[in-house]
Specification:
Largest sheet: 9 strands, mixed
Structural class: mainly beta
Protein name: Metallo-mystery pair system four-Cys motif protein
Helix content: 10-25%
Radius of gyration: 29 Å
Strand content: 35-45%
Order of helices and strands: HEEEEEEEEEHEEEEEEEEEEHEEHE
Keywords: Signal
């Protein structure tokens, strides 16, 4: 009888435990009055702003900044000019779909391209006259959740060879025009290294070959299309080397992050104290020895002008605001 009584008194306790477990499971599943996370609703169209900055040695820099530890020889250099065009801007949604950003027209952008400019004219090296700057691109996208961004450093071909003197903003900047290729400088970065740039040229047409040496104040980096020719019948242009840099940041939140152009990463393989061929620095010449390291950083094949990766690079990086 004691055994029976023990069994009888333990059954309700077991049932209560089962009932409690069932209720807990039901609540966890959202049933019987359990709360659920409300679905996120988005407007039909959302504004988007993407901020840019220049970065060196882990801190923001601007035109006129004296930067240490740049390049393969850890040079110290003053930043003289820094501007670049951005086009083909797209956000990456939750399904990895690239969604175009509709750019908002203003003094710094039209419906196809934006000009980012850090050239403020604050010092003699920067021009010596105060200039407006721009570090943001703005526009709209369809309402949705987005996790990344993709864009190009470059000007669309339909705008690249237009006359800057008659073009509308931001294509009317004379300093970004590139007369000898009848196009635009997609990116313009100029540095004045301490001690200057030792320029060495060897003339192999003489017997014996002769060497000349000089010093230049500025190491130039001008990215743009080269090998460009015009069709005399209709005035159109074609270029053998497009040289448009593709950038893809798979994880980027425009509300919380900005995009930094890391100068240390860009110049890592470049000796800013010397120059041995072509233009002083790198002006996108296919045989210019100083362009090899730069184009490797840009992930552009120097010989063809085509991207070498699907936007994966380490020059433009996402950082918290």
């Amino acid at each position: 009888m004691k055994t029976f009584q023990t069994i009888q008194t333990s059954r309700p306790a077991a049932l209560s435990l089962l009932a409690l477990s069932a209720l807990t499971l039901l609540s966890a599943c959202g049933g019987s009055g359990g709360s659920t996370t409300p679905a996120v609703t988005y407007p039909a169209v959302m504004p988007v702003s993407v901020n840019f900055e220049l970065l060196a040695n882990g801190v923001p820099v601007k035109c006129g900044s004296s930067i240490t530890g740049l390049g393969s020889k850890a040079s110290t250099a003053e930043l003289k000019d820094a501007r670049f065009y951005i086009s083909n801007v797209k956000l990456i949604d939750a399904n990895d779909k690239l969604v175009p950003v509709t750019l908002t027209a203003n003094d710094w952008q039209n419906d196809q391209v934006s000009l980012i400019s850090f050239n403020d004219g604050s010092t003699t090296a920067c021009g010596g006259t105060a200039l407006p700057t721009n570090s943001v691109i703005s526009g709209t996208v369809p309402g949705a959740a987005y996790k990344g961004i993709s864009y190009e450093i470059g000007v669309p071909e339909t705008l690249n060879h237009t006359d800057y003197a008659t073009a509308t903003k931001p294509m009317n900047v004379a300093a970004m025009a590139w007369s000898w290729t009848s196009g635009r400088k997609f990116l313009k970065l100029e540095l004045n290294p301490v001690g200057g740039v030792n320029v060495t040229r060897i003339n192999n047409t003489t017997v014996p070959p002769t060497t000349t040496n000089s010093v230049s104040s500025t190491w130039n980096l001008h990215l743009g299309s080269v090998g460009c020719t015009t069709n005399a019948s209709n005035g159109s242009y074609s270029c053998t080397n497009s040289n448009r840099m593709v950038v893809k940041l798979a994880n980027f939140d425009a509300d919380k992050q900005k995009i930094s152009l890391d100068l240390n990463a860009l110049y890592a393989a470049s000796d800013l104290s010397s120059d041995t061929s072509g233009a002083v620095g790198c002006m996108s010449g296919t045989t210019d020895q100083e362009c090899k390291g730069i184009f490797d950083s840009f992930k552009i094949d120097l010989s063809s002008g085509n991207p070498t990766t699907a936007g994966v690079q380490s020059v433009f990086v996402a950082r918290n605001k």
